[in-house]
Amino acid sequence: MPETPFRQSPSQTVGPFFGYALPYEGGAEVASPWHPSAIRFHGTVFDGAGHGIPDAVIEIWGADAAGGIIAERGSFARDGHVVTGFGRAAVDRDGHYSFTTIKPGPTRTDAAPYLLVTVFARGLMYHLFTRAYFDDEPDRNDRDRLLGDVDPARRSTLIAQADGEASYRFDIRLQGDGETVFLDFDAETDG
C-alpha cells in the first residue's frame, strides 16, 4: 500500500471561546516586577480601522539576558523568583496588553535581541507570529538578517519603542496602515 503523507487539518477561526483557561494567574509575569532586570513590554492590538481589539490573547517568548534558552520556559508554577521565558496575557477592553519580562540578549552574534510575539484574536484563521526588536539596539538591528530582509518602509512595525525607564511599547496592527509584519513558517520543511 502506498504511503500517504500526513496533511494538516483545516483550522477554525479563533473565536471568543478561546479565552477559557488560556490566560492563567501570573501569565503576564515572565519576570517579577521587582527583578533587577525587569522591563515592561506593552502595547495595543488594533484592527484594520484602528480600533483596539477587546478579545485578543498575546504570547511572548524571550531568551535570557545572555541570549540563551531559559530552562523554566512556560512554567505554570510561577514562584515570583524564576524568569520563565514565556508569558501569556489577555488584552483589556481597549486592546491593551502588558508583560513584565526581561530584555533578552541576542541569540547569535549576528542577531539583535528580540521577543517572539504570537497573536490570537477573533476572526483569525491562524494565530500570527511576529518579532519585537528594541529601538535602543540600532547597531545590532542593522546587522540582523531578518530585519535586513524586511522592506525598510515596514521595518518600524517590528521595533518596540522605549517609552519610559525600563518600558517598551509594541503596538500590533492586524491590517491596514502600518500593518505589523507577520512571519510565515513553512510547515513542509526537510528534516
Automatic annotation (TrEMBL):
InterPro entries: Intradiol_dOase_C (IPR000627), Intradiol_dOase_core (IPR015889), Intradiol_RC_Dioxygenase (IPR050770), Protocat_dOase_a (IPR012786). It is an enzyme of class 1 (oxidoreductase). One of its GO terms (molecular function) is protocatechuate 3,4-dioxygenase activity. Keywords: Dioxygenase, Oxidoreductase. Pfam families: Dioxygenase_C. Residues 39-110 form the Intradiol ring-cleavage dioxygenases domain. NCBIfam families: protocat_alph. Belongs to the intradiol ring-cleavage dioxygenase family. This is Protocatechuate 3,4-dioxygenase subunit alpha. It comes from Agromyces albus. The gene is pcaG.
